Amino acid sequence: MKLLLTGFVPFLDNPINPTEEIVRALEGQTIGGYEIVGKVLPVDFAESAKQCIEHINEVKPDVVISLGLAAGRNKVTPERIAINCRDGAADNSGVKLQDAPIEEEGPAGYFSTLPIRAFVDASVEKGYPAVISNTAGTYLCNNVMYSVLHKIEQENLEMHAGFIHIPASHELALKKNGIPSWSLADLTASIRAMIEVLGE
Ligand code: PCA
Q1: Mutate to test the pocket of ligand 1, among 21, 73, 95, 165 (most ligand atoms within 8 A of CB)
Q2: Contacts of 28 (CB under 8 A, 6+ apart)
Q3: What's the catalysed reaction (predicted)?
Q4: Would you say the CB of residue 19 lies under 6 angstroms from ligand 1?
Q5: 79 part of the active site
Q6: Closest Cα to residue 98, out of 111, 89, 107?
Q7: In the annotation, is 52 catalytic?
Q8: Alpha carbon distance 150, 133 (integer Å)
Q9: 153 assigned to active site
Q10: Distance spanning both ends of the chain, measured CA to CA
Q11: Domains of the chain from N-terminus onward
Q12: Is 41 near ligand 1, meaning CB less than 6 Å away?
């Protein structure tokens, strides 16, 4: 079985994106019976979801887990829902959207199809704080989560997908003031604990 694990490049005032490093650390490994294929996505409204879907078409994974940085959060947060909205700061190409739907005819939202409660429990049991988040925001992370779940729904695919936001790494916190941070090793271990659940 295959698991597509995606991260993002740096964006806005984040010169490092620890999701990229987690993807690099875990790609090629087999966790919970899943072979991890890692890909890093751009932070670009026109490109991120498109590239993610191209990777899905090529890899044909059983599970898609996308990771995003949520600098300021203090726990690892599997997302419950993606909403049909793009809004917020400009992306890395300078494109800024306001109140823009992702899919004109799409539903208001899609729930994650990952076992998010079990993810949280598994991480906490190993000593890594985690909690379900009820908003993935309206920026690129929400956009990728919504678009992947929309594709799965439209094409009736047997594929589970969803999104996990992570706190800053210490490396990133050294460059930004006033944000909680984790070691990259602990961030990676929390994500690994969540993936292991899929094998149970
Ligand atoms: N976090 C952003 C986009 C890229 C990332 O890592 C977000 O939460 O939308």
Answers
A1: 165
A2: 36, 38
A3: Release of an N-terminal pyroglutamyl group from a polypeptide, the second amino acid generally not being Pro
A4: yes
A5: yes
A6: 89
A7: no
A8: 20
A9: no
A10: 14
A11: 2-198 (3.40.630.20)
A12: no
Q: Which tokens sit at 104?
A: 């004109």
Q: What tens-digit pLDDT sequence spans the chain (200 residues)?
A: 999 999 999 999 999 999 999 999 999 999 999 999 999 999 999 999 999 999 999 999 999 999 999 999 999 999 999 999 999 999 999 999 999 999 999 999 999 999 999 999 999 999 999 999 999 999 999 999 999 999 999 999 999 999 999 999 999 999 999 999 999 999 999 999 999 999 98
Tokens of residue 133, six digits: 């988040």
Token pair of 43, please? 């932070």
CB burial of 171-187 (b: ≥16 within 10 Å; e: otherwise) equals ebbeeeeebebbebebb
Ligand 1 atom at minimum distance from 7 CA: 6
Tokens 């930004």 identify what position?
Answer: 176
Question: Helices 48-59 & 140-154, crossing angle to 10 degrees?
Answer: 40
